[in-house]
Amino acid sequence: MTYRVGITPEGVAPDGSTMYGDIGLARLRDAGIDWEILPRGTEHHLRPEDVVGYDAVIAFTHSRIDADLGSLEPRLRHVARYGAGYDGIDVAGLAESGIVLTNTPAAVRRPLALAGLTLMLNLGHRFEENARAAREGRWTERGTMRGRGFVGKTIGVIGLGSVGSEFVRLALPLGARIISEHRPSAIRVAEELGIELVSREELAASADYVVLAAALTPSSHHLVDAAFLQLMKPTAFIVNIGRGPLIDQAALTSALRDGLLAGAGLDVLEVEPPAADEPLLHMPNAIVTPHALCVTEDFVDAVSDDLIEDLLRGSRGERPRYAVNPGVFEAWRGDTARSEVSE
Asked: What's the predicted TM-score (pTM) here?
């Protein structure tokens, strides 16, 4: 039976070209694997009836994927996420159904950290305001648009996972004090990087730049709320490269409008795409990019390579390199496959 892969349809043309360009789907066909684009609507919620006849699925955006995904198709064994995040996916439920979830965290780490650094540098040097002044011929005002800079300032990073720790490594040469939220999972990384761990309240009150690189979980939803924003300095900036719902967007809009903080750099929003009248899109002290600031040539090449490689491994019953629920592969393909891939 031919191994078949379904692809969620957002940004994918019938010939397999995508919004990211060529992601290497020819490698699947070269390996004797068929792929097809799934019906419209599956980019929002992937349901059991959508995956009948498929062994694997590529999910481009943050489709909701429930535990019962494979209830109508026992062949389904693999969901491959193009990117790192998997909020909205019932990982434990998929594992119980024998479905492995893979993502591409290594490929995303450096480009996303660089995106966060880009937003922070932009805010710290008032790039948008200076560029606007140049376009409008306001050269005599250039001395009035002095940036905050970074030497001697404090950068507070929330989320010291793969992306957050990479961001810290990139930011260390700037001459700023770098702190992060005190969590048990952060202790080892903080010691390795040589940064201080403080309470969330202290981070909010002392940071000149707050950078969010945390995963979205029930406990991190709206971790930046009105109370957090009220603790921040009116001269401080906030950057979000994690997930939009990490910030209470209404509270942030009010804080920016009322001068409770100096500005925000956001590559993610609570609702994507936002409405045309979303206030943050039109505020002079907010920089909003369309959840794509990390998408560079090296990002696309690396993410595509890791995605396709794990799909090929899965088609052969081998252990994927980037499994979110790695124990699942042991149940693949029966006893023969288990013996072939045992470690």
From this structure: 0.89
